[in-house]
Design goal:
Order of helices and strands: EHEHHEHEHEHEHEHEHEHHEHEHEHHHH
CATH superfamily of the largest domain: Glycogen Phosphorylase B
Number of domains: 2
Largest sheet: 6 strands, parallel
Radius of gyration: 21 Å
Number of helices: 17
Structural class: alpha/beta
Oligomer: single chain
Number of strands: 12
Helix content: 40-55%
Strand content: 15-25%
CATH topology of the largest domain: Rossmann fold
Length: 364
């Protein structure tokens, strides 16, 4: 049986955590998979402690190491991994790509990206196409609950008549939840039924809470994990949501968006290359050309005023989520990568063709 070692950050984001779980389930019958978690300290202190605690002999003896993020990649290299699979957890900078190109000249390594935009950034900056692959993240549909839960809404501080707008995913600087909060505050001034919800994960949660207090009123931003006084999974929040707002200013992990699509929630998103891979205006979402709060607020009103549009974009988004973000597709692609890398063969990841329903809707 082949052996692989996964090097995972101490505090992985939502997308990384779900991918690690699903890959473990996909390959456990054919691979001996060992997971090593890096030290939680930041900067060089964390790197030194991770290196000191890492079982380097296990990394060297494994068929390959799967590194999640740049720090894990560096540890795989200095630990003497024979072959490496690299999964970036953030969008690459030019400096990071330059370092990776140098690594590829001396190591048998492959990069696996989660979006076409990320893959194109690597390839355009010099990473060989045959060593840069695309595997979109998968939605664990078993976790999705679609029926509205009144008790959950009440626990979060919302009435049945409220329109709950959720800023999608984790609150990070690049996610720009401030745009969503500002748009929600505009709507709240027009009608008090408009409310905003944050999950409560991410480095900018406290900043976003204070921002909401300033632009609207204290307590305007409801943070789910604070309200419930416990950790809650992102999927478990979806039955309390009416509309999802996606307002990033930089490329962000896409799994949270795909999860909202799978739950059949209407989505309003600002336009970017990454968003355009997943969503199409008036087909699977309503898109906003500019990341302006007033424009986002206007699109929310357009959506609320047209129940037929709400249903059509939500239904098509759910259909496309099943097609493009299925666990079966994800598992098969990762099994292909693991098997080929372990045996030193050429890695070829096949992207499945869209199904008949999507071709009928013009998505070819």
């Amino acid at each position: 049986m082949s052996v692989a070692v996964q090097l995972v950050p101490a505090r992985p984001d939502f997308q990384t955590r779900r991918q690690v779980e699903l890959i473990g389930r996909a390959v456990r019958s054919t691979f001996g998979l060992k997971t090593c978690t890096l030290h939680s300290a930041e900067g060089w202190v964390g790197a030194v402690r991770s290196f000191a605690s890492l079982d380097r002999r296990a990394v060297r003896s494994a068929d390959f190491a799967h590194a999640w993020g740049a720090e894990a990649l560096a540890l795989a290299v200095v630990s003497g991994a024979r072959r490496i699979v690299y999964s970036p957890v953030t969008f690459p900078t030019r400096r990071a790509v330059g370092w990776l190109r140098s690594l590829l000249d001396h190591r048998d390594a492959h990069v696996v990206c989660t979006t076409s935009t990320m893959r194109r950034a690597y390839v355009e900056r010099g990473v060989p196409l045959e060593r840069c692959h695309l595997i979109r993240p998968a939605v664990d549909f078993a976790r999705i609950k679609r029926r509205r839960v009144t008790q959950l809404r009440a626990a979060l501080g919302f009435a049945d008549t409220d329109v709950v707008l959720m800023a999608c995913g984790e609150s990070t600087p690049g996610a720009s939840h401030a745009t969503a909060i500002w748009a929600a505050s505009i709507l709240h001034q027009l009608d008090a039924k408009f409310r905003v919800l944050l999950w409560g994960q991410g480095s900018a949660v406290d900043l976003m809470r204070r921002f909401g207090d300033n632009v609207c009123s204290p307590g305007f931003v409801s943070v789910a994990q604070d309200r419930l006084e416990k950790t809650i999974e992102f999927e478990d929040l979806l039955p309390a949501i009416d509309v999802v707002l996606v307002t990033p200013t930089t490329p962000q992990p896409t799994l949270a968006i795909a999860t909202c699509m799978a739950a059949g929630l209407p989505i309003i998103a600002t336009t970017s290359y990454t968003i355009a891979e997943m969503l199409e205006d008036r087909h699977t979402a309503l898109l906003v050309p500019r990341p302006k709060p007033r424009d986002v607020a206007r699109r929310v009103l357009d959506l609320i005023d047209d129940p037929g549009l709400q249903w059509s974009i939500s239904d098509m988004a759910k259909t496309e989520a099943f097609e493009f973000f299925s666990v079966s597709r994800f598992s098969e692609q990762w099994r292909t990568v693991y098997d080929a890398v372990a045996r030193g063969l050429k890695v070829e990841v096949i992207e499945p063709a869209p199904g008949a329903g999507l071709r009928f809707h013009g998505r070819v």
